[in-house]
Amino acid sequence: MAKITAVKCIRTRVNGTWGIVKILTDQPGLYGIGSASDHYHQDAVIQAIETMIGPRLIGRDADRIEDIWQSFYTSGYWRNGAITNTALGGIDMALWDIKGKEAGMPVYQLLGGACRSAVPCYAHAGGSTPEALAEAVQAYLDEGYPVVRCQLGGYGGGGFLPSNKTSRPENAWQSDKVFDDEAYLDAIPAMFEYLRSTLGFGPKLTHDVHEHLRPQSAVALSKRLEPYRLFFLEDVLPPEQIQWYRLIREQCTTPQAMGELFINPHEWMPLITERLIDYIRVRVSKVGGISPCRKIAALCETFGINTAWQEGGDNDPVNQMAAVHLDMASWSFGIQEENHFRQDEYDTFPGHAILKGGHIYPNDSPGLGIDIDEALAEQLLVEHEVKTPRYAAEDRRADGSVVRP
Question: Are 306 and 279 in contact (CB under 8 A)?
Fold first, then answer.
């Protein structure tokens, strides 16, 4: 029976925003890795692991994954915080990695075995004009992606107006552009009208609002997009306003995907059990790892909801691999967000998942099937980038008030 002897954190990527947990055991060569990355608070997550969770893991049986998760979930008394959840998520993934290596099986085999041959993904297409966007969408379709996300520029694109073209206070704060709900409500349906007229209704298309809208506008947008038959509309509401999904469900049939910012079961439970959304999009590491996510997937199956685990540009290959193992073994899986990495980042994580033709393929190596080259991980770091504080985007309305991402 392997016992935990050490827990260490490996910080990597150019800006140091990837944190990888490595759990060592008393069995020669037996260790596991997990993702504990946080783009904005990596120092805090590492502190939580090195000073709070890690020391209390020493000497415990590495195979007691559920017991460790349950005891450490409440070990800080206050729970369901982004920092402690991410720390626990990294630990949990590493323990599953160890369990798979001991069993000589990939983690998805331990979760019940494969129920699909590969993991279909959706691509991220963007363009500053509908014409440019249509070309980008078609390129991804030609590559083999079954679903494509469509954005008119960056998040909120289509809703930004030049500051000098809006009514602003005389003492307005400096800003080149401001976000306007009504402009967005006009631009995005027009965007999909063009895409459908150009590409037809065969392609499966999504759109990410990224929580930019007021609740009333979110309801209106969902209704206006109904004729364009989206695969799903993503994060149309911020997590503080999820009760509005009841009204959206009453008003239209546009499929809804939600959960990128979720960290608390009280956020996703009502949406799933009341069938108010169609896809749950929590990040595996942010809700505590593989252990809670397999339970979320089982809950989704019961209520007819699909999983679409969140990835995105700030994520790392280890969290992606954890999501892929869940995808392979979960009947309730719907679609996986794709993620691309630089070649030197791929080199740092041997055994990483393979993305080809719009599908992700895991390998058959025991555990998560992915490792980390610590020397290469250190070489990725750029000191001044690591020390640069990182903040969320501050999109604002004409009066200066912040648009919550």
Answer: yes
C-alpha to C-alpha distance for 218 and 223, rounded to whole angstroms: 9
77 is catalytic: no
Structure tokens at 20: 């990888």
Kindly state the helix (H) or strand (E) to which residue 325 belongs, with its residue range. Answer: helix 317-329
155 is catalytic: yes
Tokens representing 273 are 């059990």
Fold category of 110-366 in CATH: TIM Barrel (3.20.20)
| Contact of 313 with 341, CB cutoff 8 Å | no
Active-site residue, from 124, 207, 210, 359: 210
Q: Cβ–Cβ contacts within 10 Å for residue 132, how many? A: 14
Q: Which of 131, 65, 137, 73 shows the shortest CA–CA distance to 94?
A: 65
- d(CA 50, CA 313) in angstroms, rounded, equals 26
Residue with tokens 């038959």: 229
Taking only the tens of pLDDT, the chain with its 405 residues reads 899 999 999 999 999 999 999 999 999 999 999 999 999 999 999 999 999 999 999 999 999 999 999 999 987 889 999 999 999 999 999 999 999 999 999 999 999 999 999 999 999 999 999 999 999 999 999 999 999 999 999 999 999 999 888 888 888 888 889 999 999 999 999 999 999 999 999 999 999 999 999 999 999 999 999 999 999 999 999 999 999 999 999 999 999 999 999 999 999 999 999 999 999 999 999 999 999 999 999 999 999 999 999 998 899 999 999 999 999 999 999 999 999 999 999 999 999 999 999 999 999 999 999 999 999 999 999 999 998 887 766 789 998 888 988
- The catalytic residue among 31, 108, 122, 155 is 155
Q: For residue 404, what is the DSSP state?
A: P
Structure tokens at 211: 């929580």
| CA torsion, ordered 315, 321, 326, 328, to nearest 10 deg | 130
